[in-house]
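fyi for ur records
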Amino acid sequence: MEVPLTIRLGPDRDINLVIMDYLVNEGYPAAARKFALEANIQPAEDFESIQERVDIRNAIHRGDIQTAIESINELNPQKILDTNSALHFALLRLQLVELIRTCTSSESGDISPALTFATTQLAPRAPTNPEFLEDLERTMALLIFPPNNLSPPLAALLEPSLRKSVANSVNEAILTSQGAAREAKIRGIVRVRAWAERRAREAKKDLPSTLDIGLDPDRQASNGAEDSIMQGNGEADSMVT
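which gave:
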């Protein structure tokens, strides 16, 4: 039987803590600092640490994986990547994807930097895990087929969604290493809300066809909303810039 997550929100302070938790977890240091002053609460993580996670995620989103790896190692003395081989491999594979992207788009078309990186950094790790080997083989296929004629699985490697996925995994790993929750509490609340709606519909309760809770930016844009959830007064400092 499916059991929902139990979340109880009481006084305004509890709600403020949930909001602060979201700002810290998702990486909005300026908004968190301002909200801390207004709500008279202190975040569990210092603002400098939040900004360091922001910088790492931004580096991944712009394809600067080497900088991200170096920053992760500087941030965490316990060496997150040394103890999380899957995350380390995901970062290295993304770095290979970025190298292939650069090589194949250059005038010379020289792919030797990508081949050297794959040989020295990924090939020794690939045999330790069947998934690593499969991921490496799929990534190397980008060197064989022209960029404008890739199958959907290969084309997906060049989409921004891969950077986003790896960046999210890195953010979760850093939070875990700091003893924090991997995701913001508000996400659990939204899941509970979705579970409650599903159970109500299964019980044939009288509900509108859709219940908009204002967390769909695409729907907000289509409705002409001027500000997204985290834009506030225009001080946008999200983890992706």
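Confidence is low (pLDDT under 50) at residues 1-7, 219-241. thats all i got for now
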